[in-house]
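Protocol step 4 of 6.
Sequence for Histidine triad (HIT) protein (Kribbella flavida) entered exactly as in the expression construct, tag removed. Do not edit the line below.
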Amino acid sequence: MTDLPGNGSPYEPDEVGPQQGVGDPDPFLRLWTPHRMAYITGENKPTSADAGSGCPFCRIPSLPDAEALIVQRAGAAYAVLNLYPYNPGHLMVVPYRHVADYTELTPDEVADVARLTQEAMQAVRTVSAAHGFNIGMNQGEIAGAGIAAHLHQHVVPRWGGDTNFMPVVGQTKVLPQLLADTRSLLAKSWPAES
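Step 5 output, structure tokens:
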């Protein structure tokens, strides 16, 4: 890497770098992810279990697809990109109805969640050749659900070596593409309904 300090970088350790003199210069490259601050602080997280505009999964379907990051809609559920993805292309499949528990889904909701999950896998494989997937639901706050009141299934693409030192040591995920661009690619590659 020729752009690191000491290797031909425009910011040699004794020069004022991008932070304009704040702190002591060092050889580390920083990857800023300010969009994650909303997740860390709980911004937009519902304060109650009620349906309506306070629930992002109830609000999202009323927005235009590109703005909401919705990739595909079905009769009883929709697929949307995760705002705080674990990996590039991380989607969630969400029933329109505000329901917390998988056992409370109707047969139509179960069918749409399952079909959209399959189609999400196909679209991600087409766009980015995922090697595998983590697919699942966290049922209840105690099980790790960030928004426990509105069921959502995660579809997380995986590649060999995608868990490296960055998330383990640096607690940072490197996402190579803007969410709007990812949404556009996945929407164009979404399989035709069978």
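Step 6, annotate. The chain has a mean pLDDT of 79.
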